[in-house]
Amino acid sequence: ADPDVRLILQPMTKAAELRAALDALGFRIDGETVVRDGRRLYQVILACYDGVVRTSSPLELELGRLNMASRGEDVILLAERLKRQFGKRRAGLLKAGLDCSREEEMLALLDGFTGRA
């Protein structure tokens, strides 16, 4: 919790959970990008502590507010991949007779962001 320290983070999984934790702990995301390496996509986040607790939308947690604003090609590609992941998760939950409302919400948000169903 030192405002002079900058964190450069590259989550391999669970980027949404990382962003939620940064929000809750008072870290401001000053930069973020999606980097493509072959077929892989990596998110890179630059965060600084300012003590302000934030709340991000579910879509902002998954894609990143700054990434969404850029609407770069790799961000759209990431959103398409997330749609496939949430779609598979939704199908599995439906098959098991479990609640899939979160997955359906995320699919609708991602469809709205990419502009395609």
Write the layout of secondary structure elements.
Layout: E1 6-9, H1 15-25, E2 27-37, E3 40-49, H2 58-63, H3 65-70, H4 73-95, H5 101-114
Helix pairs in contact: 4-5
Quick overview of this protein structure:
The protein has 117 residues and is of the alpha+beta class.
Would you kindly provide a written description of the structure presented here, covering whatever features stand out?
By secondary structure, the protein is α+β, with helices and mostly antiparallel strands. The chain contains five helices and three strands. It has helices at residues 15-25, 58-63, 65-70, 73-95, 101-114; strands at residues 6-9, 27-37, 40-49. β2 (27-37) and β3 form a beta hairpin. α4 (73-95) runs antiparallel to α5 (101-114). The longest helix is centred in the last third of the chain and has 23 residues, at 73-95.
- Percent of residues in β-strands: 15-25%
Work out the helicity level. Answer: 40-55%
Number of helices: 5
Distance between the termini: 41 Å
Low-confidence stretches: none
Structural class: alpha+beta
Radius of gyration: 15 Å
Total DSSP E strands: 3
Mean pLDDT value: 94
What is the N-to-C succession of helices and strands?
EHEEHHHH
Give me the side-by-side strand order of the main sheet.
1-3-2
